[in-house]
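thought: fold this chain, then report.
action: predict
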Amino acid sequence: MARTLIGTCLAVLLAVSLAVPALAEPTAASLFGAEKRGSRQAPQPIGTYARGCAAGLVQLPETGPTWQAMRLSRNRNWGHPETIAFIQRLGARAAAIGWKGIYVGDISQPRGGPMTSGHASHQIGLDVDIWMLPPKRLTLSRAERESISSISVRSADQRRVNGNYTAAHAALLRAAAMDPAVDRIFVTAPVKVEMCNRATRADRDWLQKIRPYYGHHYHFHVRLKCPRGARNCVTQRPTVAELSKGGDGCDETLNWWVTDYLDPPKKAARPKPPAKPAPKKRGARDYTMDDLPRECRRVLAAD
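observation:
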């Protein structure tokens, strides 16, 4: 009787286990997105800009003498100390060229890592978005920072800058590119075209750091170099020098962004390959902790 009862229970448990799918492993984005503050560790970017995390990040003050952090509800105004210092330098430069300062978009989450929405990068505390909107004042309330929008500096056909783009934008981008901590800056291609057309022969080396990329017409994205001594930080490859073949990037590869990229040349029709389901491409929001450097587990577990 007892054996029969035990056998029946085991059969029921087996049936239940087969009927109920195993719980999915939590994504790294959900784990890092739940963190509300940085870890009490020495500052350390870990991994790559698009697959990593960061220890010891510090929070950019919501308001400073020449900046305001925007979209505070996202809690993404955390960065490596060198990133925070860069923002302060750039804000001062903005004030020197006639702006009130800068509006700062996303930097990173408190402990970096993948995000549940938005960016694929911004994971190691060394990326920061700067709005194209020149601040009229630096006294915005929290509510205003959630509702106000930046401006686009690109024409509707995506081939040139529009009337929102000014000499001050060019001066601010140049100041950012000249900063020795900066690795590269992503901006809409028409801005780079305009900068190439207006740069003098004697003042072009910094243009190498200005990299065209789709989107990026409401803000420009500054990426800093791995800080000295950051042994777990992976430098981006190819370098800007390799991408521009040692030049300033004002060549046919730039023109592609405002020609073939927008209107691809027609290709001769080819026989269709046999239909077969393509494997789903995994992105940052699909990563589990096993996809990140092992040091990221220590970052999550730290106080």
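thought: worth noting. Residues 5-21 have pLDDT under 50 and may be disordered.
final: tokens above.
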